[in-house]
């Protein structure tokens, strides 16, 4: 009996298996409970105005560095010639202009980003706030709540009272776009009136580009296509490519009765017409001629012009007809120009007259 009682006493003092599990369930009744936000820890700048002013000066300094980077970017276009090469370790030999543009623009953009990040991390409010998910079609109460949050956020950012940050930020954001304007200068000088005039003047002889001899009417037969350049323009000249790109001519002889346009007929000589060789789409040289239809085709984008009807556009992306050059014959029997083209040659441009 005593042995059995001892056993019962021990059993009563030990928790049952069911009771132990029941206790665990009570302790862990909701394993997915919201733990809540951790206690907010104030930053040094939140409790020390001296530290806050220091952060303000750092942010303003980064914005000022950005302004200096942009000014350096603009100055690089003036200081460095395009052909200047420098040695930069460990890159090697690079263009001084490209290196300085990349370095200064990188500094300008990086400093703006670094300033904004430092401003947000040290001076703007970092207190976490929990909010319920809401419908996309917000009601008036929610809209007003968002508006108040915006106002509070703007106030806590210090944008209004930290004038040093605000003014330097405006300066940096104003100067950076100027670098994009300066880049446009790299497209080259403005054409001004250079595209309005060529080397053709009254009395200038037409020279065959293949034979380098003056063109005579008997040299141009019906159905042929001949290319010409102004007398005095030689390939050895430094600006030959620039000048021939505007003055190149194609000469075609048509039967006078096949010419439909009156002005074209008046500007021709015995059916010989002279048109610019430069396509009015993107400036490709035209060289394909169809004798039966009197059409010329640009090989680049298939713009088609009718040389019997004022070189008007029949097909393709070209925007206007090929300019015609008025020609005649001088005392030596050579074909000559009676002036320059009356409209700019080549593609259209925004200040086209």
What keyword list fits this structure?
single chain; 353 residues; alpha+beta; Rieske Iron-sulfur Protein; 2 domains; 7-stranded antiparallel beta sheet; 4-stranded antiparallel beta sheet; elongated; disordered N terminus
Model description:
The chain folds into two domains: 44-127 and 142-187; 194-338, Rieske Iron-sulfur Protein. The protein has 353 residues and is α+β, with helices and mostly antiparallel strands. Strand 12 (327-329) and strand 13 (335-338) form a beta hairpin. The chain has helices at residues 2-13, 17-27, 44-47, 49-79, 96-122, 140-156, 163-183, 240-247, 262-267, and strands at residues 85-88, 92-95, 202-208, 225-230, 249-253, 272-276, 288-290, 295-297, 304-306, 312-315, 324-325, 327-329, 335-338. The strands form three sheets. Strands 11-6-5-4-3-13-12 form a seven-stranded antiparallel sheet. Helix 4 (49-79) packs antiparallel against helix 5, helix 4 (49-79) runs parallel beside helix 7 (163-183) and helix 5 runs antiparallel to helix 7.
């Amino acid at each position: 009996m005593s042995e059995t009682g001892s056993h019962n006493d021990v059993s009563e003092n030990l928790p049952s298996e069911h009771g132990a599990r029941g206790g665990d369930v009570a302790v862990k009744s909701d394993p997915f409970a919201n733990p809540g936000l951790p206690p907010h820890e104030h930053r040094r700048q939140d409790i020390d105005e001296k530290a806050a002013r220091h952060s303000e000066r750092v942010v303003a300094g980064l914005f000022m560095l950005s302004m200096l980077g942009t000014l350096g970017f603009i100055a690089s276009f003036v200081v460095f010639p395009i052909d200047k090469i420098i040695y930069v370790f460990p890159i090697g030999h690079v263009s001084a202009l490209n290196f300085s543009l990349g370095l200064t623009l990188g500094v300008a953009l990086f400093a703006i980003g670094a300033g904004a990040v430092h401003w947000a991390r040290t001076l703007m409010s970092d207190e976490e706030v929990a909010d319920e998910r809401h419908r996309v079609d917000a009601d008036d109460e929610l809209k007003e709540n968002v508006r108040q949050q915006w106002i509070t956020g703007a106030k806590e950012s210090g944008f209004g009272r930290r004038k040093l940050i605000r003014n330097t930020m405006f300066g940096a954001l104003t100067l950076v776009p100027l670098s994009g304007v300066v880049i446009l200068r790299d497209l080259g000088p403005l054409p001004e009136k250079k595209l309005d005039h060529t080397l053709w003047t009254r009395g200038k002889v037409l020279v065959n580009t293949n034979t380098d001899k003056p063109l005579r009417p008997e040299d141009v037969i019906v159905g042929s296509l001949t290319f010409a350049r102004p007398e005095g323009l030689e390939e050895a000249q430094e600006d030959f490519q620039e000048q021939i790109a505007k003055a190149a001519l194609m000469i075609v002889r048509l039967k006078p009765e096949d010419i439909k346009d009156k002005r074209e007929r008046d500007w021709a000589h015995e059916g010989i017409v002279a048109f610019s060789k430069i396509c009015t789409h993107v400036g490709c040289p035209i060289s394909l001629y169809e004798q039966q239809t009197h059409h010329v085709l640009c090989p680049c984008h298939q713009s088609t012009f009718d040389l019997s009807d004022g070189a008007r556009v029949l097909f393709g992306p070209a925007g206007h007809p090929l300019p015609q050059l008025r020609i005649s014959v001088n005392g030596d029997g050579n074909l000559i120009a009676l002036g320059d083209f009356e409209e700019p040659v080549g593609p259209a441009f925004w200040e086209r007259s």
